[in-house]
Protein backbone atom coordinates (compact mmCIF):
# COMPACT_ATOMS: atom_id res chain seq x y z
CA UNK A 1 0.00 0.00 0.00
CA UNK A 2 1.02 3.61 -0.61
CA UNK A 3 0.18 6.36 1.89
CA UNK A 4 -0.61 9.86 0.61
CA UNK A 5 -1.23 12.64 3.14
CA UNK A 6 -3.11 15.79 2.21
CA UNK A 7 -4.86 13.37 -0.12
CA UNK A 8 -7.87 15.52 -1.03
CA UNK A 9 -5.60 18.46 -1.86
CA UNK A 10 -4.43 19.74 -5.21
CA UNK A 11 -1.07 18.05 -5.75
CA UNK A 12 -1.87 14.90 -3.75
CA UNK A 13 -5.08 14.10 -5.64
CA UNK A 14 -3.24 14.49 -8.95
CA UNK A 15 -0.59 12.14 -7.59
CA UNK A 16 -3.18 9.52 -6.63
CA UNK A 17 -4.74 9.76 -10.09
CA UNK A 18 -1.36 9.07 -11.69
CA UNK A 19 -0.63 6.23 -9.26
CA UNK A 20 -3.99 4.67 -10.13
CA UNK A 21 -3.13 4.89 -13.84
CA UNK A 22 0.04 2.90 -13.14
CA UNK A 23 -1.87 0.19 -11.29
CA UNK A 24 -1.34 1.39 -7.71
CA UNK A 25 -4.83 1.15 -6.23
CA UNK A 26 -4.08 0.28 -2.60
CA UNK A 27 -3.91 3.92 -1.58
CA UNK A 28 -4.31 5.06 2.01
CA UNK A 29 -5.64 8.62 1.86
CA UNK A 30 -4.83 10.77 4.91
CA UNK A 31 -6.41 14.19 5.39
CA UNK A 32 -9.13 16.10 7.16
CA UNK A 33 -12.19 15.18 5.13
CA UNK A 34 -14.38 18.06 6.31
CA UNK A 35 -14.39 20.14 3.12
CA UNK A 36 -17.05 18.93 0.63
CA UNK A 37 -15.56 20.94 -2.25
CA UNK A 38 -12.08 19.57 -1.64
CA UNK A 39 -13.40 16.02 -1.24
CA UNK A 40 -14.62 16.12 -4.84
CA UNK A 41 -10.97 15.61 -5.80
CA UNK A 42 -11.25 12.03 -4.52
CA UNK A 43 -14.50 11.00 -6.20
CA UNK A 44 -12.91 9.52 -9.34
CA UNK A 45 -9.94 7.90 -7.58
CA UNK A 46 -9.32 4.35 -6.37
CA UNK A 47 -8.60 4.49 -2.65
CA UNK A 48 -8.41 1.59 -0.22
CA UNK A 49 -9.05 3.57 2.96
CA UNK A 50 -9.44 7.11 4.26
CA UNK A 51 -7.75 8.01 7.56
CA UNK A 52 -8.30 11.26 9.45
CA UNK A 53 -5.07 13.20 9.95
CA UNK A 54 -5.30 13.12 13.75
CA UNK A 55 -5.77 9.33 13.78
CA UNK A 56 -3.07 8.45 11.27
CA UNK A 57 -0.14 7.60 13.55
CA UNK A 58 -2.33 5.45 15.78
CA UNK A 59 -3.51 3.59 12.67
CA UNK A 60 0.05 3.26 11.32
CA UNK A 61 1.29 1.73 14.59
CA UNK A 62 -1.20 -1.10 14.14
CA UNK A 63 -0.05 -1.93 10.60
CA UNK A 64 2.49 -4.44 9.42
CA UNK A 65 5.18 -2.09 8.14
CA UNK A 66 5.99 -4.57 5.37
CA UNK A 67 2.61 -3.73 3.84
CA UNK A 68 3.49 -0.02 3.49
CA UNK A 69 5.57 0.50 0.37
CA UNK A 70 5.93 4.28 0.37
CA UNK A 71 4.74 7.48 2.06
CA UNK A 72 4.11 10.73 0.21
CA UNK A 73 3.68 13.33 2.94
CA UNK A 74 2.05 16.27 1.14
CA UNK A 75 -0.35 17.36 3.86
CA UNK A 76 0.37 20.74 5.44
CA UNK A 77 -1.06 24.10 6.32
CA UNK A 78 -0.13 25.87 3.07
CA UNK A 79 -1.65 29.33 3.50
CA UNK A 80 1.17 31.86 3.09
CA UNK A 81 -0.98 34.42 4.93
CA UNK A 82 -1.35 32.19 8.01
CA UNK A 83 0.22 33.89 11.03
CA UNK A 84 -0.65 31.35 13.72
CA UNK A 85 2.92 30.22 14.35
CA UNK A 86 1.89 27.53 16.81
CA UNK A 87 -0.50 25.99 14.28
CA UNK A 88 2.12 26.02 11.54
CA UNK A 89 4.70 24.52 13.87
CA UNK A 90 2.27 21.77 14.88
CA UNK A 91 1.07 20.84 11.37
CA UNK A 92 4.09 21.58 9.19
CA UNK A 93 7.08 20.95 11.42
CA UNK A 94 6.24 18.67 14.35
CA UNK A 95 3.85 16.43 12.38
CA UNK A 96 6.52 15.91 9.73
CA UNK A 97 9.14 15.12 12.39
CA UNK A 98 6.88 12.37 13.69
CA UNK A 99 6.37 11.08 10.14
CA UNK A 100 10.14 11.03 9.63
CA UNK A 101 10.70 9.07 12.84
CA UNK A 102 8.01 6.52 11.94
CA UNK A 103 9.63 6.02 8.54
CA UNK A 104 12.95 5.28 10.26
CA UNK A 105 11.38 2.84 12.73
CA UNK A 106 9.35 1.03 10.06
CA UNK A 107 11.90 1.29 7.24
CA UNK A 108 9.49 3.12 4.93
CA UNK A 109 10.78 5.45 2.17
CA UNK A 110 9.50 9.02 2.38
CA UNK A 111 8.89 11.98 0.10
CA UNK A 112 7.71 15.14 1.85
CA UNK A 113 6.65 18.57 0.61
CA UNK A 114 8.96 21.47 1.29
CA UNK A 115 8.41 24.77 -0.52
CA UNK A 116 10.08 27.45 -2.62
CA UNK A 117 8.71 29.85 0.02
CA UNK A 118 11.82 28.86 2.00
CA UNK A 119 13.92 31.00 -0.39
CA UNK A 120 12.37 34.30 0.72
CA UNK A 121 13.36 37.15 -1.57
CA UNK A 122 16.01 34.97 -3.19
CA UNK A 123 18.95 36.80 -1.64
CA UNK A 124 20.90 33.55 -1.68
CA UNK A 125 19.64 32.41 -5.07
CA UNK A 126 17.40 29.44 -5.87
CA UNK A 127 19.93 26.65 -5.88
CA UNK A 128 18.96 23.56 -3.85
CA UNK A 129 22.33 23.43 -2.14
CA UNK A 130 21.80 21.82 1.26
CA UNK A 131 24.76 23.76 2.68
CA UNK A 132 22.83 27.01 2.15
CA UNK A 133 19.53 25.99 3.72
CA UNK A 134 20.45 27.29 7.18
CA UNK A 135 21.13 30.73 5.66
CA UNK A 136 17.73 31.15 3.97
CA UNK A 137 15.33 33.87 5.14
CA UNK A 138 11.70 32.98 4.39
CA UNK A 139 9.29 35.91 4.24
CA UNK A 140 6.36 34.43 6.16
CA UNK A 141 5.59 31.95 8.95
CA UNK A 142 4.58 29.29 6.41
CA UNK A 143 7.98 29.45 4.69
CA UNK A 144 9.71 29.48 8.06
CA UNK A 145 7.86 26.32 9.17
CA UNK A 146 8.95 24.49 6.01
CA UNK A 147 12.54 25.66 6.30
CA UNK A 148 12.71 24.69 9.96
CA UNK A 149 11.88 21.12 9.07
CA UNK A 150 14.41 21.05 6.22
CA UNK A 151 17.11 22.26 8.61
CA UNK A 152 16.08 19.72 11.24
CA UNK A 153 16.11 16.84 8.74
CA UNK A 154 19.60 17.63 7.52
CA UNK A 155 20.94 17.61 11.08
CA UNK A 156 19.59 14.17 11.92
CA UNK A 157 22.00 11.28 12.38
CA UNK A 158 19.21 8.81 11.71
CA UNK A 159 17.30 9.14 8.46
CA UNK A 160 14.85 6.99 6.48
CA UNK A 161 16.76 4.69 4.12
CA UNK A 162 15.37 6.82 1.28
CA UNK A 163 13.95 10.30 1.73
CA UNK A 164 13.40 13.36 -0.40
CA UNK A 165 12.17 16.88 0.41
CA UNK A 166 10.74 18.69 -2.62
CA UNK A 167 10.70 22.47 -2.84
CA UNK A 168 7.59 23.10 -4.92
CA UNK A 169 7.60 26.34 -6.89
CA UNK A 170 4.41 27.85 -8.40
CA UNK A 171 2.39 24.75 -9.19
CA UNK A 172 -0.73 25.05 -11.35
CA UNK A 173 -3.18 22.65 -12.92
CA UNK A 174 -6.43 20.70 -12.46
CA UNK A 175 -7.94 19.96 -9.03
CA UNK A 176 -6.99 23.30 -7.42
CA UNK A 177 -10.47 24.85 -7.67
CA UNK A 178 -11.05 24.54 -3.90
CA UNK A 179 -8.00 26.64 -2.94
CA UNK A 180 -9.66 30.06 -3.10
CA UNK A 181 -7.17 32.93 -3.04
CA UNK A 182 -4.29 30.43 -2.71
CA UNK A 183 -5.03 28.97 -6.15
CA UNK A 184 -2.67 29.67 -9.05
CA UNK A 185 -2.78 32.93 -11.00
CA UNK A 186 -3.86 30.86 -14.00
CA UNK A 187 -7.09 29.80 -12.28
CA UNK A 188 -7.71 33.36 -11.08
CA UNK A 189 -7.10 34.62 -14.63
CA UNK A 190 -9.50 32.07 -16.08
CA UNK A 191 -12.23 33.07 -13.64
CA UNK A 192 -11.67 36.82 -14.01
CA UNK A 193 -11.55 36.68 -17.81
CA UNK A 194 -14.65 34.44 -17.90
CA UNK A 195 -16.57 36.89 -15.68
CA UNK A 196 -15.35 40.24 -17.04
CA UNK A 197 -13.39 39.66 -20.24
CA UNK A 198 -10.50 41.46 -18.53
CA UNK A 199 -7.53 40.70 -16.27
CA UNK A 200 -5.93 42.90 -13.62
CA UNK A 201 -2.32 42.33 -12.57
CA UNK A 202 -0.22 43.91 -9.86
CA UNK A 203 1.75 46.93 -10.98
CA UNK A 204 5.52 46.75 -10.49
CA UNK A 205 6.94 48.86 -7.66
CA UNK A 206 10.49 47.86 -8.54
CA UNK A 207 12.28 50.02 -11.15
CA UNK A 208 14.10 46.93 -12.46
CA UNK A 209 10.82 45.36 -13.62
CA UNK A 210 8.14 46.80 -15.90
CA UNK A 211 4.47 46.29 -15.05
CA UNK A 212 3.52 42.65 -15.54
CA UNK A 213 7.10 41.56 -16.06
CA UNK A 214 7.51 40.22 -12.54
CA UNK A 215 8.67 36.64 -13.03
CA UNK A 216 7.84 33.29 -11.45
CA UNK A 217 8.74 29.68 -12.04
CA UNK A 218 5.36 28.20 -12.99
CA UNK A 219 5.34 24.39 -13.02
CA UNK A 220 2.54 22.15 -14.33
CA UNK A 221 1.18 19.75 -11.71
CA UNK A 222 1.54 16.75 -14.04
CA UNK A 223 5.30 17.41 -14.18
CA UNK A 224 5.40 17.56 -10.38
CA UNK A 225 3.60 14.22 -10.15
CA UNK A 226 5.92 12.63 -12.71
CA UNK A 227 8.96 13.64 -10.65
CA UNK A 228 7.50 12.17 -7.46
CA UNK A 229 6.66 8.85 -9.09
CA UNK A 230 10.10 8.68 -10.72
CA UNK A 231 11.70 9.25 -7.31
CA UNK A 232 9.51 6.51 -5.80
CA UNK A 233 10.89 4.06 -8.34
CA UNK A 234 14.44 5.50 -8.18
CA UNK A 235 14.85 5.30 -4.39
CA UNK A 236 18.39 6.57 -4.14
CA UNK A 237 20.16 9.93 -3.89
CA UNK A 238 18.21 11.10 -0.85
CA UNK A 239 18.14 14.83 -0.19
CA UNK A 240 16.33 18.11 -0.78
CA UNK A 241 15.50 19.06 -4.36
CA UNK A 242 13.90 21.94 -6.20
CA UNK A 243 10.77 21.15 -8.16
CA UNK A 244 9.95 23.86 -10.66
CA UNK A 245 10.08 24.12 -14.43
CA UNK A 246 13.55 25.66 -14.30
CA UNK A 247 12.41 28.62 -16.42
CA UNK A 248 11.01 31.87 -15.03
CA UNK A 249 8.20 33.48 -17.03
CA UNK A 250 6.40 36.80 -16.64
CA UNK A 251 2.86 37.26 -15.42
CA UNK A 252 2.15 38.90 -18.78
CA UNK A 253 3.29 35.72 -20.53
CA UNK A 254 0.93 33.73 -18.34
CA UNK A 255 -2.13 35.94 -18.78
CA UNK A 256 -1.61 36.27 -22.53
CA UNK A 257 -1.47 32.48 -22.76
CA UNK A 258 -4.79 32.25 -20.90
CA UNK A 259 -6.46 34.83 -23.17
CA UNK A 260 -5.19 32.99 -26.24
CA UNK A 261 -6.26 29.58 -24.94
CA UNK A 262 -9.73 30.94 -24.16
CA UNK A 263 -9.96 32.61 -27.60
CA UNK A 264 -10.49 35.99 -25.94
CA UNK A 265 -9.11 39.38 -26.94
CA UNK A 266 -6.40 40.59 -24.53
CA UNK A 267 -7.52 43.26 -22.07
CA UNK A 268 -4.94 43.64 -19.30
CA UNK A 269 -4.68 46.47 -16.76
CA UNK A 270 -2.64 47.05 -13.62
CA UNK A 271 -3.45 47.84 -10.01
CA UNK A 272 -1.14 48.76 -7.13
CA UNK A 273 0.28 45.90 -5.11
CA UNK A 274 -1.29 46.17 -1.61
CA UNK A 275 1.03 48.04 0.73
CA UNK A 276 0.93 45.33 3.39
CA UNK A 277 2.65 42.84 1.05
CA UNK A 278 4.61 45.24 -1.13
CA UNK A 279 7.89 44.98 0.78
CA UNK A 280 7.70 41.17 0.72
CA UNK A 281 6.70 40.79 -2.90
CA UNK A 282 8.90 38.47 -4.96
CA UNK A 283 9.86 39.88 -8.36
CA UNK A 284 11.76 36.82 -9.57
CA UNK A 285 11.84 33.11 -8.77
CA UNK A 286 13.44 30.37 -10.84
CA UNK A 287 14.24 26.85 -9.70
CA UNK A 288 17.73 25.60 -10.41
CA UNK A 289 16.99 22.09 -11.65
CA UNK A 290 20.51 20.76 -12.28
CA UNK A 291 20.54 18.72 -9.07
CA UNK A 292 17.49 16.65 -10.03
CA UNK A 293 18.81 16.16 -13.55
CA UNK A 294 22.21 15.12 -12.16
CA UNK A 295 20.68 12.03 -10.52
CA UNK A 296 19.19 10.91 -13.81
CA UNK A 297 15.72 12.47 -14.04
CA UNK A 298 15.07 12.04 -17.78
CA UNK A 299 11.97 14.08 -18.61
CA UNK A 300 11.57 17.62 -19.90
CA UNK A 301 9.16 20.02 -18.22
CA UNK A 302 6.03 21.39 -19.87
CA UNK A 303 6.41 24.91 -21.24
CA UNK A 304 3.98 27.51 -19.91
CA UNK A 305 1.87 27.84 -23.07
CA UNK A 306 1.41 24.08 -23.42
CA UNK A 307 0.58 23.75 -19.74
CA UNK A 308 -2.01 26.52 -19.91
CA UNK A 309 -3.60 24.94 -22.99
CA UNK A 310 -3.80 21.54 -21.26
CA UNK A 311 -5.27 23.12 -18.13
CA UNK A 312 -7.81 25.17 -20.06
CA UNK A 313 -8.86 22.05 -21.97
CA UNK A 314 -9.60 20.32 -18.66
CA UNK A 315 -11.60 23.38 -17.54
CA UNK A 316 -13.95 22.81 -20.49
CA UNK A 317 -14.62 19.14 -19.65
TrEMBL record:
Binding, NADP(+): 10-11, 31-32, 38, 53, 74-78, 146, 171, 179
Catalysed transformations (reactions): ADP-D-glycero-beta-D-manno-heptose = ADP-L-glycero-beta-D-manno-heptose
Enzyme Commission identifier(s): 5.1.3.20
The NAD-dependent epimerase/dehydratase domain, residue ranges: 2-244
Location of the active site: 142, 179
Pathway given in the UniProt record: Nucleotide-sugar biosynthesis; ADP-L-glycero-beta-D-manno-heptose biosynthesis; ADP-L-glycero-beta-D-manno-heptose from D-glycero-beta-D-manno-heptose 7-phosphate: step 4/4
Keywords for the protein's UniProt record, in alphabetical order: Carbohydrate metabolism, Isomerase, NADP
UniProt key word Isomerase: yes
Stored Pfam families: Epimerase
Cofactors: NADP(+)
Main EC class the enzyme belongs to: isomerase
Residues at which substrate binds: 170, 181, 188, 202-205, 216, 281
GO aspect biological process, one term: carbohydrate metabolic process
UniProt keyword Isomerase present: yes
Function, as annotated: Catalyzes the interconversion between ADP-D-glycero-beta-D-manno-heptose and ADP-L-glycero-beta-D-manno-heptose via an epimerization at carbon 6 of the heptose.
Domain comment as written in the entry: Contains a large N-terminal NADP-binding domain, and a smaller C-terminal substrate-binding domain.
Similarity section: Belongs to the NAD(P)-dependent epimerase/dehydratase family. HldD subfamily.
Assembly behavior: Homopentamer.
Record-given protein name: ADP-L-glycero-D-manno-heptose-6-epimerase
Taxonomy of the source species: Bacteria, Pseudomonadati, Bacteroidota, Cytophagia, Cytophagales
Amino acid sequence: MIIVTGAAGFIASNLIKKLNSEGFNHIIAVDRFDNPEKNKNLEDLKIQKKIEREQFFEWLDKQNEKEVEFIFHLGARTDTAEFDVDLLNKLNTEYTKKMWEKCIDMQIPLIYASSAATYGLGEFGYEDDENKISELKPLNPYGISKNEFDKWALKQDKKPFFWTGLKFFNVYGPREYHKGRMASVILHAYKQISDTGKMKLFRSHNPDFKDGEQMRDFVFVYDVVNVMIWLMHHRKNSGIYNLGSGKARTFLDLVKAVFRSMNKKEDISFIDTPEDIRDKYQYFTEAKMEKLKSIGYPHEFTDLESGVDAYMQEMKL
